[in-house]
Write a structure and sequence with these properties.
Layout (H helix, E strand, L loop, with lengths): L29 E5 L6 E6 L3 H18 L4 H17 L1 H12 L3 H21 L7 E3 L5 E9 L2 E5 L7 H12 L3 E5 L5 H17 L7 E3 L4 H9 L3 E7 L2 H13 L3 E5 L4 E5 L5 H13 L9 E7 L3 H13 L19 H17 L2 E4 L18 E4 L5 H4 L6 E7 L2 H9 L3 E2 L1 E5 L3 H8 L8 E4 L11 E2 L2 E2 L6 E2 L8 E9 L15
Parallel strand pairs: 5-6, 5-8, 6-7, 8-9, 10-11, 10-16, 11-14, 13-14, 16-17
Antiparallel strand pairs: 1-2, 3-4, 4-21, 12-13, 15-19, 18-20
Helix pairs in contact: 2-4, 2-6, 3-4, 3-6, 4-5, 7-8, 9-10
This protein binds 2-aminohexanedioic acid (UN1).
Amino acid sequence: MQSILPLPTQPIKPGTSTGQHFWQSDAAKTIDSYSPADGQLIARVNVSTRADYDRVVETAQAAFAEWRLVPAPRRGEIVRQMGEQFRRYKRELGTLVSYEMGKSLQEGLGEVQEIIDICDFAVGQSRQLYGLSMHSERPAHRMMEQWHPLGVMGIISAFNFPVAVWSWNAMLAWVCGDVCIWKPSEKTPLTALACQQIISEVLRNNEVPEGVSCIVTGGRDAGEWLARDPRVALVSATGSTRMGKAVAEAVAGRLGRSLLELGGNNAIIVSEQADLDLAIPAIVFGAVGTAGQRCTTTRRIIVQERIYDEVKSRLKHAYAQLRIGNPLDESFHVGPVIDQMAVGNYQVAVTEIKESGGKFVVEPGLIDGLGFESDCYVRPCIAEAENHWPIVQRETFAPILYLLKYTTLEDAIEQQNNVPQGLSSAIFTLNMREAERFLSGVGSDCGIANVNIGTSGAEIGGAFGGEKETGGGRESGSDAWKAYMRRQTNTINYGTTMPLAQGITFEL
Ligand code: UN1
C-alpha cells in the first residue's frame, strides 16, 4: 500500500516550543518511524544529543521563571486555546496516531478526544488550585496551605498512547505553572512533534516564553538524562515496570519526585449473576482493543465455574467475528501490534503458554499476505490457563486473553489480586453484595475497580493509575493536579504576643 504521508526530505528536528525555534541538532543519529499498518517509513526524526538536551533544560528553566508568574486562570485560558486547536485538528492527528501507532482510527480519534477532555478539565482546574485553611492552636494566629508551581517536569511517554498520556500530564502541569520536557517513545516520535506543532500557534499568539513546552527525542539515554537531572523536579513516566523501576531508582537517588504509570495485568471477574450481554462485548473490547497494548487491557477473565462453558463458547463466537486489518480502514476491529519485536514477544508468550499446559480456545497465529506486508498483524487469542503460571503473572503487551475459573467470590478476588501489578479490574454481577464486596477494602487491590464495565477506557475525570508494580502514580482527574505542585504550609501571627506551639514557654 502507498504511504499516506509524503516523507520529508530532511530529518525533523525536535526542540523547544513555539515551532519556530527547533534546535538544529548536530546529531548524526535519527529515529526512523515506520507505520506498523503498512510497513512504510513515514518520518525520520533527529535524536537529541546531550548538548541539545542541556540547551532544552536551560531554556525550560528560564521559561519557568516567567511562566510561574502568569496567573493560573490565565494559564488555563492558554490551555483552553490549545483544546480548541486539538478540536480543529482532531481528524488529522487521530489519523496520524492510527497510522504511526497502529491503533484503529476510532481509537486514534478517541485518543485525541482524551486530549480535548483533559484541556477542558485543566481549564476548570486552573481556577481551583485550592489549599485548606486550618484553625491554629495559638491565639491570633492563622494557618493555611498554598500550592505553588513546582518547576521543570519531564514526561516520558509510551508508544501505546503516544499523545493522550502526554496531555494528561502537560495540561495539568501547565495550569499548575510548571514547564514540560516531553520525551516521547522512540516508536512514535512523529505524533509528538505533531502535537508540538498544533499548540505552537497558541504559544506564539499568547507570547508564552520559549521553553514552556519542549521535546527531546531518543531512547533510553534521553530518559536517563531526565531521571538523573536535579534540574527536573518531577519525572512522570509511563511504560514497562522494568523501565519504571530504573526511572524510580534514578529519581529517588537524587530525592526527586516521580509519578509512575507502569504495567497492568487486569482481570474481569464474571459472576454467575452477570449480565453476559454486557460482559461479553466489554471483555472482547478490553482484550483486543489497541491490539492488546493498553496498560488497561483485559488480560485475564476469572469466570464462575457454573457459567464457564457458556462464557467460553460465547467468547469463541465473538472472536470469530473479529476483523483484523489496516487500522485506517474503519471496517476492521483490530490493527497491528507496534513492531516486529512485539510480534516476537507474542510468539514467545504463545510458546510459553503451550509449555505451561495452556489450551487455546481461540488459536493464536501471525497473519501475512496482501494488506499485511508490515508483518505486524497477530491473531487475538484466548487460552485456558492457571493464575499462578509465570506467563499469566507477566504482562505481555499483545492480544492474549487468559481464561481462569473460580468457585467462590473470595477465590475470585484472591486470583484477581494475586499478580504483581495493580492497575485496573472489574466485576460483572447484578448482585449488590458481590459488587460492594469487590469495591471494598478487602476487594480489588487495584487503582481502578469497575462494576459492569470493562477494565480499559477510563474517563479523564477520575484519577488514573495503579498500585504495586503499576507504580502508585495518579494522573488526569480528581486531585491528581497536586502531584504537579509543591505544598507550602503557612502560619501567620497577627497578634501582639509570641506564643509557642505545644505550650512551650521560653522566656528571656
Ligand atoms: C495506557 O494504556 O497507558 O483507560 C492508558 C484507558 C485509556 C488510557 C490507557 N483511557 O484505557
